[in-house]
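Predict the structure of VOC domain-containing protein.
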Amino acid sequence: MAGTPGDADEQTNLLCPPASRRCRCLQPVPKPATIRASLLPTGKTPMALTFQHVHLKTRDVQATVQYYIDNFGATRKAEIPGRGWQLDLHGTQLNITGIIAEQKHEQQYGIEHMAVVTDDYPGTLAKLRENGVAVLEELKGEKGNRVAFVAATDGAQMEVIEKI
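Done. Here is the predicted structure for VOC domain-containing protein.
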């Protein structure tokens, strides 16, 4: 019986605002928060990391953008000129592009990487190298800051962005 406790559709819909009960969203996503990463040896001050985005690389940028808008309520945030779009997916930034010619590291279609921002770029990379993490490529960001792509498990990658 619809609307009874335990009815999965009703419970899912109750998480949505009243005006959009049909949205079938799963649950609200909290805003990204700054965390203190324990990347440094005990006794040292840890660096601050904040989650920034998930990057989806696709063969069809427009179809992928529309998929997240139509099915999950994403909104267009900004165009990435000549590459794709930034979407807001309930507080999480999705970057949707194709393969980027200027990046020389191996790129994959699908969820390619997640990105963090650090206030101690040299310290973060030093610790990652100390832990045996492969640095795939270092670049200059659009604002002149340093950016690194590093290997993660199962072919995934992480992007480390210098906070400026």
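Confidence is low (pLDDT under 50) at residues 1-33.
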